[in-house]
Design goal:
Number of strands: 0
Strand content: under 5%
Helix content: 55-70%
Number of helices: 9
Structural class: mainly alpha
Order of helices and strands: HHHHHHHHH
Distance between the termini: 57 Å
Shape: globular
Oligomer: single chain
Length: about 220
Amino acid sequence: MIPAHPHSSRILSIDAFRGFDMLLIIFADRFFASLHRGADTAFTGFLARQFEHPEWFGSTFYDIIMPLFLFVVGAVIPFSLSQHMQHQSSKGQLYSRLIKRFVILFILGWIVQGNLLALDAGQFKVFSNTLQAIAVGYVFSCLAFIHLSRNGRYLLFAACLVAYVLSHVIDFPAIANDLLFGLEQYSESWYPVWTSIGGFALLYTLLWYLYVNKTFIKV
């Protein structure tokens, strides 16, 4: 007799969707490019172009792969955290888990596209990779799920939209560059890193000011 397997709490549809997205990331672009080189037909050319990013205008299927992965990361948060919140007695254990995942993903992003292993501050990029976007989105989403009510999450969502718009309208790194003028001679090649961090600090200071002064509409 085959023993029964214990009931799994994993959601198979999400696992399958995550696997499909990873397959597209690792395999699809090279596969369809090679297929087009071999067949050289209009149809294979269309498929190959769907796995290339356009220069600026337009979009292809390739452009939705990262959003799909971010969607999967967000979709599992309520299920995963709910279980951990039931089985773990303190929030400190949850924070430790979140910080560990955040640090691992961020460092992997530095290695993949941040030129960390070059050991050259001039080539180093603080934020340049999909893994880092996932890390930041994951930790903020988890903290919001743990500490905020549903209305609070709606408010945070609105704040993120405002931050996105402001970051594309106002050049915060340029403002930070003006404020930090004169420090370049002391920080040498690390100066662009400080202006980037300063830009983020200015943006979130502005959002904090808007929140404290009740500029946002209450949900």
